[in-house]
Amino acid sequence: MSRGVRAQYDVLVVGSGIAGISAAITAAEAGLSVALLSKEADAFDSNTGWAQGGIVGVSPEDSAELLAHDIRYAGAGANFADAVNLVVSEGPQLVHDFLAGRVAVPFSRDKSGALELTREAAHSVRRIYYAKDSTGAAIQRALLTYLAKTAGVTLLTGHTAIDLITNTHNSADIQERYRRTKVLGVYAHCDSAGCVRTLLARSVILATGGPGNLFRHTSNPDGATGDGVAMAYRIGAEVIDARYVQFHPTILFHRDSRQFLITEALRGEGARLLNHSGERFVPRYHPDGELAPRDEVARAIYREMEQENSDYVLLDATVVDIDLKKRFPGIFEHCKALGIDIRSQPIPVVPAAHYFCGGVKVDLDGGTSIEGLLAAGETACNGVHGANRLASISLLEGLLWGVRCGRNVAATLPDADARLYATIPDWVEPAEPEEFDPVLVRQDQRTIQSTMWNYAGIIRSRKRLLRALADLDYLSHRIEQFYRSATLTRQIIELRNSVLTASIIVGDAIAHPQSSGCHYVE
To answer: Could you tell me the fold of the domain covering 6-48+133-243+357-422?
Structure first.
């Protein structure tokens, strides 16, 4: 397990959010050698770390049946029943035992030491564990601390996965082309050394997050470019439900702030959405008002903005009867720095791309259609979310399927095939690489974001989607040609993944002309 160009492990986990870290810990504690890849220089930087609201835990008011009902209601009934039953029967207790217990996540507690519970949209009861308004950051820090004490894990930061290594695509043995495809590892770009490493493994778990940064307005970090979906798709793995991109209703709208989420928990505590006339408008679109499913609230805001010809609406938290500074310190301080006192002023908000309900098709143990490849978290689609995710279920799902992936590889890990590994060549750079022009790469990324926002966003039409597909098809040919001739960088790898994942989303949307959940077609 050297740190040279070539290395070998039992398991490679790509992605360092809640799903990836949970999978790595579980596999390592079963005695396997694990490499955990993060393309960020700091493994803390992930979608998990950005999550504000919370994670569903154990509540005295709750039951498996009630939680399942709420998940199906939010998911427009398109959920996979077996996956929902699994997450409601095992998930909350796992959060309580593993996160609140073993990992010691500092969830908010009352004076007696009992875990406090909050409620978000489409939840029937208070059942959500939270750490003020920085739940994801608290979970991420605690998991990384626990991971650092776990033997058998090698954390590789600044490593951007390029492609999955398979026998049929990469082996120098021509006979392997005719055999069943199996994943043997990952080619990864080491940013600090500027080289590509050949990382071999008996199993690979994809946990790279979603494609939220393919849209102009997003709550996601810049690295959310659909990498895992693109890599899996290129080797023939099944990708399903890609049309289901959830838009969060309330992202702060301010010229000096980008991608800052205003958690749904604020509406759960009683904050109201107002138009520029000061009118509470969401009840006109849905009887549950601000606590309707996210797709309904996002569309209500979008329609109101259209009618008023405005760029945002207002979230009024001044009516909330709690200490806002104490309960939502992150939001309070961020808004205060921008000149907004949320105790006395409404917050300007706009919907933005938030969560991917589709992804690489997996079974109840995280297995995909390709031998040796598993997936968990936002990269994967197991059917829990259906057509629209219920709030605070994503972290729960990522944890559960991360753990199940770790258990799966420990129980079914194939023997290392030294002969086959020896046929896998190291990466070959172009003989005369083209110069990297960051301006051109950034412009192509912005073109993708504008295309997806304008033509495949909150409200879609067949005409817009066909235009998007044509524009993306033109762009993809140019990007692929540049990728094959250029010296690799993280930005070029992400651009290649972005245009492919965007095309997958649009193609699936065109193939399903009927509206369902967050896929809304006029």
So the answer is: FAD/NAD(P)-binding domain (3.50.50)
